Amino acid sequence: MITYLVRRVLQSVLVVVLVSLVTFTLLHLLPGGPARAILGPRATQSQLQQFVVQNNYDKPLFVQFGLWFNGLLHGNLGYSYKLNENVSSLIVDRLPKTLVLMALSIVVALIIAIPLGVYQARKRNTVGDYLLTGFSFVFYAMPSFLLALLLIILFSFDLPWFSPEAPQSDSLTAILADGKALVLPVATLALITIAAFSRYTRSSVMENLTQDYVRTAAANGAADGRIIVVHVMRNAMIPVVTLLGLSLPALFAGALIVESVFNYPGMGFLFWQEAVVRDYPVLLGVTLVVAVATVVGSLLADIAYAALDPRVKYT
Amino acid sequence: MTMNPPLPERAAQVSDAIAASSTEPGAPPKSMWRLGLQVFLANRLAIVGLVVVVLFLLFCFVGPFVHHTEQLRTDLAQANQPPGAAHILGTDDVGYDEFGRLMVGGQSSLEIGIAAAVMATLVGTLWGAIAGYLGGFVDAVMMRVVDTLLAIPGLFLLLLLVAIFTPSTGLLIVVIAFGAWLTPARLVRGETLSLRTREYVQAAKMMGGGNRRAILKHITPNAIGTIVVNATFQVADAILIVAALSFLGLGVPPPHADWGNMLSDGTAFTQNGYWWMILPPGLAIVLVVVAFNFLGDALRDAFEVRLRRR
User: Fold this and answer.
1) Smallest CA–CA separation between B220 and chain A, in Å?
2) Model confidence at B115: pLDDT above 90
3) Which of A301, B46, B58, B300 sits 20 to 30 Å CA-CA off A70?
4) Beta-strand (E) ranges in B165-284?
5) Distances from the Cα of B138 to the Cαs of A198, A217, B126, B144, B188, in angstroms?
6) What distance in Å separates residue A312's CA from the closest CA in chain B?
7) Which residue in A55, A15, A9, A13 sits closest to A280, CA to CA?
């Protein structure tokens, strides 16, 4: 177990270093080189020269990478000349908002998806099961921006219940306080996640229902409900932990689109706005942070899995 | 979508199809392909998927020859018309006929989706087969590359690439393939690890066959099930990604249309109730993606039968 953890952590660190190498490579692929791309077409030759020297772009590549990576470790993700702000402080400001949006959606998705999956597993191959399977196929195929638009049309214009725009405040507490405006963004992100989660729960519960311990519990006179809640759920939920880790990239991507549709002041919205105006330092910085978050997330999911399931022996 | 387990009701159909095909005494034994085809055809959802895909291909690529519409010059006098006799699905904000635009836009969506999936599958298959077959250090290095790129959430990487290199149809294909080849690479590597120990691969090696021959002639053809099934899902994913990029304004560049930027144009008019600018392209995306997913599921069952009969 300890060896497994150590190896898994080392692997993650390696991937993080490699991801930063990819970002570094992209920085040098920027059209016209990093100086021209970041300072813009109207920068003078002497400004470019100064930028190159300041950022060590005149040194050999591996020295550059070393210096740049050292900067990363000290929280230096570059400077956005378009927003006139440090990329790291932009991210520190925006990332928590994205994480809150994602966390709320995951919680809502789990609260709905798990009972749905259990219901489908128990009533498999009935009309209800087929109907829900059909829904999950459709939601799986539905682009998040289409779903967001449909929800806005239905629940904001046709029925004036919720705001079509996410909370616009700068502070996290004010955003959370404006619950009504959070409903549609969270619902969009949750709905696209529910499809996968409920399918997964369904098959996991179904697999566990065939196990010997279920028969034993039934033979001991345990009621159906008790078997599901006490015995099956504990085992069936373990793979869902892995699924949570695996769905992080999709959730970040979903958050980007949902934030863009609803004007939610998170990191995905920032990324989109700066992609349109080609603010490369922000794009590279956010990409790096999102990748690191994904790596850490899946590492945590793996550790949780190893801790939860004593049957799994790692060497 | 590859995480969905085969549905149990389908498993029943599969075994029915096997039973139906194997119980006639004296009949000549059926080939694996025939058997796979039978299972595929016995699956109603597969037929629905196939029909929807074919209909959309006809609609997008043959439709414009039958239903002529002006898709180059704008006609502001005819802008924002609701569906009617002159325009079956109305017109958009610059007067393009929506029904005709759905066809032309579908061409981009399908072309890019299919081309990107094919490219990703080819690259991924070769990458995975080489890594798995050679093993050792080469494998470790090649798979760390895959791990690294997988760690970067796809949409962010794609938007970054599209912001660096100005998008065109060709570039979009390459960029989307670049984000998508990782899954087939992993799958094929896994398959290769078991295939390379098989007797026939060993025999080919004994007889002096080189690595290239083993990979191209023996490993890849035997992993074809995994490859084809994944390629089908890849098309569905790629169509969604193109639509997302175009919706965000960084996909198919104007004046070209695709379903994603049609939707994004319609977004400006949600408050006016111009549903004909949003629902048709949205529905088209959902239908095509669901159809490809059905196809993928059915192909997986068909190939599983081939394996089971071996």
Assistant:
1) 27
2) yes
3) A301
4) none
5) 39, 50, 14, 10, 15
6) 21
7) A55
C-alpha of A206 from chain center: 28
Instruction: Examine residue B28 and say whether the peptide bond preceding it is cis (omega within 30 degrees of 0).
Output: no
A252 to B153: CB separation less than 8 angstroms, yes or no: yes
The answer to whether the predicted template modeling score (pTM) of the entire model surpasses 0.95 is: no
- Indicate the DSSP class of residue A32: T
Are B277 and B269 in contact, with CB atoms under 8 Å apart? yes
Question: B69 versus B228: which is more confidently predicted?
Answer: B228
| pLDDT > 70 in chain A, percent | 98
Q: From CA A277, how far away is CA A6, in angstroms rounded? A: 42
For B143, which residue in chain A has the nearest alpha carbon? Answer: A15
**Confidence band of A108 (pLDDT split at 50, 70, 90):** very high
Tokens of A13: 């660190």
**Structural contact between residues B66 and B22, judged by C-beta atoms closer than 8 angstroms:** no
* CA–centroid distance for B305 within its chain: 22
**To the nearest whole percent, how much of chain B has pLDDT over 70?**
85
Per-residue pLDDT, B26:
56
What pLDDT digit, counting tens, does each position of B164-194 carry? Answer: 887 788 888 988 898 889 988 888 888 888 8
Best CA proximity match to A214, nearest among A200, A234, A199, A197: A234
CA nearest neighbour of B159 among B267, B62, B241: B241
Burial environment of residue B25 by CB neighbours within 10 A (0 to 12, 13 to 18, 19 or more):
exposed
